[in-house]
Amino acid sequence: MNSVEIKNLDLNFGAVKVLQNLNLDIKQGEFVVLLGSSGCGKSTLLNCIAGLLEVSGGQLFINGKNVTWSEPNERGIGMVFQSYALYPQMTVKGNLTFGLKNAKMPKDEIEKRVARAAEILQIEPLLDRKPAALSGGQRQRVAIGRALVRDVDVFLFDEPLSNLDAKLRADLRVEIKKLHQQLQNTMIYVTHDQIEAMTLADRIAIMKGGKIMQLGSPDEIYNRPQNLYVADFIGSPSMDFFEGHLENGVFTMGDIALPMADYEYANGPVSGPAIVGIRPEHILTGDQTAGAVTTQVTIDIVEPMGSDTLVYSSLNCKPLHIRMDGKAKVAAGETITIGFDPVSASLFDPTTEERI
Amino acid sequence: MADPVQFTGPHGPKPKTPFSRRNIMLYGTLIVVSLYYLVPLYVMIVTSLKGMPEIRMGNIFAPPMEITFEPWVKAWSQACTGLNCDGLSRGFWNSVQITIPSVLASIIIASVNGYALANWRFKGANVFFGILIFGAFIPYQVMIYPIVIMLREMGLYTKLGGLVIVHSIFGMPILTLLFRNYFASLPEELFKAARVDGARFWGIYFRIMLPMSMPIFVVAVILQVTGIWNDFLFGVIYAKPDSYPMTVQLNNIVNSVQGVKEYNVNMAATLLTGAVPLFIYFVSGKLFVRGVAAGAVKG
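YS: structure for the whole thing
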């Protein structure tokens, strides 16, 4: 059974159509990340699932129950917000129990649940403090705890780590993943951070303009992007694109001819104009170039990052990024030989922008 | 131990000169301005403590040779306005009976209004809010006569209850604006979190919003108490001598044309009338600062 089902969902703010005919099925226990740049409708979609926004059309099912018209607290969801949204006048315990008291739950049951959540999140010593006396990471734990005590089926996260500094963000990211493995709940997680999406998700939904551009595992999204937008959005630095022509299984750009015999076509081999997308780490350098189609490029800028070295260059008057080994000895102005690996490349139709 | 480093030229904190030209200008201006405000108050207090013979000597700045509280007693309990000769006390209690219910009613209603407008955006909320704000710009004078008729039809004309209703209504636009803007400035996610936690309209209002809104309630109380206490126009129109608020009575005492002008009684009456707003400023000023400090906690 699907944990969350979204059927033909529309949402309009006045004349502005934010979400249009959106469909999404999320399996029990799945961790789905909604990823997109700001204004793509990902938070709006989450608010619709939570019941904080009234939908303009379509249906919402949680655990097989139609919740389209239900109040947020009747949907079996818990939500964690970016700004934590802890009630400042209540203690941590007050924050955790507020929802349970509203549900008129017996006292001993409340105590049991608070104890369990506090243990899982390791916030027992903080229970009598006010939110103002907590650090950012502790506040976010309490916010997660507030969803946890309600024993909900679906956790909704609205950019929960965006207000934290980089180190804490990495730590809490791992903790959220641990929490998911421990609880096995369905989780829907909104973020604009690719790393969070790639590391946490079972499936990622990349959104743009209120539509899901691609829904797939992190591996599919990264290695087989469905369209130009997804290919360009995921990866940092992003994929480099070169226009060319595809004929008889050979992709030609300028004087470079790439045999695409091993390429996995989406719908079988085709001919015509095409765009090839290559990730910086899929450009071969040094000894790897043996046997591959090669060309010479001049290095413009070198960015040593420790673990690897990023090289900025150009090919056919288009920018070209190359991710080299961290120990590579290269300098600006040098000319190096690079090779292409057709299997890890992606081909797109220039007019439809879909994967070929 | 190493020798202390010897500096040449400027080092460390810059020395301050207490009698710099800047300080003289600054404090000079402050002293002059405060004198400008305090001298009339001084004259009032001094005069109210003098007897009439001393006042007739004409040294208004001179401190009283013989301190007497008679003018204060007279202003409070014996001064005549029209037929009544029971002083300002009657007006004081009238004003109390007008101010307390009007302040409570207007603040309670306006805070709920503001909360609904800020957080529960119902259909037509913007239009409603627009009309309300427009109401704040309509001159009172336009509405005086229609309200006379309305109060008369309701049987509340010249009654204290009528004045309470009038004050509550006229406080509504500005207070609603105040509360709406304050509630809108609270993080929206708190409201959402409370909804996910199963709280409804009143639950969120009482349990989440109210405890976070002390500063704005104090501001509203200051605004309303001083505004309603100091009101003269509505008091003079919608009340009759028995139900005149303190301000109207003060006017009648000070502006009475019969007999001798008792300056000391007038001064005492004025100080008595101004005491309540003054008291509110002093008391709530402190509360206000505390409220702002407590409200500054980010969740």
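YS: worth flagging: The CA atoms of residues 113 and 300 of chain A lie 59 Å apart.
IM: good catch. Also The radius of gyration of chain A is 24 Å.
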